[in-house]
Each structure stands twice: as C-alpha cells, then as structure tokens.
Description:
The protein has about 190 residues and is α/β, with parallel strands linked by helices. It has helices spanning about 5-15, 35-45, 60-65, 75-80, 115-125, 150-155, and strands spanning about 20-25, 30, 55-60, 85-90, 110, 130-135, 160, 175-180, 185-189. The protein contains six helices and nine strands, in the order αββαβααββαβαβββ.
Amino acid sequence: MTLKDDIEAAVACMRQGGVILYPTDTVWGIGCDATRTDAVQRIFEIKHRAESKALIALVNSRDMLERYVESLPDVAWELMSLSERPLTAVLDGACGLSTAMTGADGTVGIRLTAEAYSSGLCRRLRRPVVSTSANISGQPSPAIFSEISHDIIDAVDYVASYRRDDTSRSRPSAVVRIASDLTVKILRQ
C-alpha cells in the first residue's frame, strides 16, 4: 500500500467517525477527527482514560491552528515552528473542536506536525487529528509498532501500514503552557 493510499483509507475511516492507530512525529498514536465528540469519546474508552485528562490535536499549518484557537499568540507560533523537537502548546480559547478535547478552563493542547503520515492526515482531512499515545492509560507509550498492545490494535477501526517496521525511537513531545497574557510555563521537557 502506498503512503497516499494508506492516508486516504485512514481519512475515510475518520470521516465516518472511526478511530485510527497511526505513526506520529513522536510515538504511535490513537486518533480521530478532533471535531467529532463521538469519536473522541471512543478514544477515552479504548485507553481507559479519565475524561478529565484532555487529549491533544495535531495540525499541519498555521492556518489550521488559527481556525481552532480564538487568538494565537505570536510567541506560540514561533516556539512551535522553530522548535527542533516536537512541541505541544497548551493554548487558551479552543474553538471548533469537540468539547471533549478541551480542558475545563477552555484550553487545548495542539502540536504542529511535519511528519509525513500525521501531516498528511491533517491535510487530507482538513481538520485537526487527535493524537494520544497508543496505550492503555498509565502504561508505557509505544515508540514502535511492535510495542502496541493487541487490546489497542483490536479496538481501533483502522491500523496504518506506514512505518510498522520502523524501529527508530522518538520521545513524547515537550509541552508548554502559553497563556493569553503571554506567560510561558514548561509542563514537560
């Protein structure tokens, strides 16, 4: 299967409200259309994750990012686009996303991705894609496909073919909170 065909199949699944298993710019992830509450709720169920622990969304461009936050501070864009390591920014004023994606305070975690598969998903879906590690909550995050539990694989609607044999390891993203008053706080290095 070509990369393009794999992305097309994953996007078709997400457009139907499905949940996918896919490689990201960090670890393998579970994802769906970040605007669909029914699909986001399924991810919480699959992971046995408390709904109070917000999920993050991947975007592939500044334009997409600006559509899903009320106001994008320039410092947030600069940090995200210039960081050598994947960086998740927790921003104020989430809009247009499933309410299950946002924190109680209206914040949302968003990461800019340039990785081929996850960026392709965002581009083809034309919406942010949920990205959460492909593990049961509290278990280690799978850096490579062979580390993913069969419980996770069996619970999703589509499993990407791309990078299944890739054994290179990445770390989870750094996480920073960028408040509307431009206060920056490192949440995870």
